[in-house]
Design brief:
rod-shaped; 2 helices; mainly alpha
């Protein structure tokens, strides 16, 4: 209330001073003080208006900040959700790949065992055949030795017979 009374008094005094200025009269020190008070009042009003505009801008910026912050939170949530989805898909694919690797490892292990068994079976069969072949060679060598001995005996017998016949033939010619 005091402010409105002061404002009304300054307004009246300012009107009086402005009339003097328009009439071209000389201003007193009091008149200059009234002009300065009027100027201060205008500056105060300008400051108040500027403060109101700053407050309005601050409120608008606060609302924009809240909207922007909300949008950032939405985008952040969406990105986290997508990252989680991608991560889950990658984990699933890694699990599938690990299962496939395990299956391949098992298959390779079984194939290795089967090949090992086949190699051992072939090795055993070859060893038996080699033993059989060696026995047959030994038997054949014995037969050859027997034949060689027999031929040696036949040769000796033939030589003895030939020698005996020559001796008989030599005696019969004498």
């Amino acid at each position: 209330m005091v402010e409105s009374v002061t404002s009304a008094v300054i307004e009246k005094a300012l009107d009086t001073v402005l009339r003097k200025v328009s009439e071209g009269r000389k201003l007193s020190t009091e008149d200059l003080v009234v002009l300065m008070l009027g100027l201060f009042r205008e500056i105060k009003n300008d400051i108040a208006n500027t403060n109101k505009r700053i407050d309005a801008l601050y409120e608008m910026m606060s609302r924009n900040y809240e909207v922007l912050n909300s949008r950032i939170n939405e985008v952040n949530g969406s990105l986290i959700k997508k990252i989680d989805e991608i991560n889950n898909r990658l984990v699933e694919k890694i699990d599938e790949t690990n299962k496939r690797i395990d299956a391949l490892y098992d298959l390779v292990g079984r194939n290795y065992e089967a090949l090992n068994n086949r190699i051992n079976a072939i090795n055993d069969a070859l060893s038996r055949k080699i033993e059989e072949t060696n026995k047959r060679i030994d038997e054949t060598n014995k037969r050859i030795d027997n034949l060689y001995d027999l031929m040696g005996k036949i040769y000796e017998a033939l030589i003895k017979q030939a020698t005996t016949q020559r001796q008989k033939a030599g005696k019969s010619q004498t």
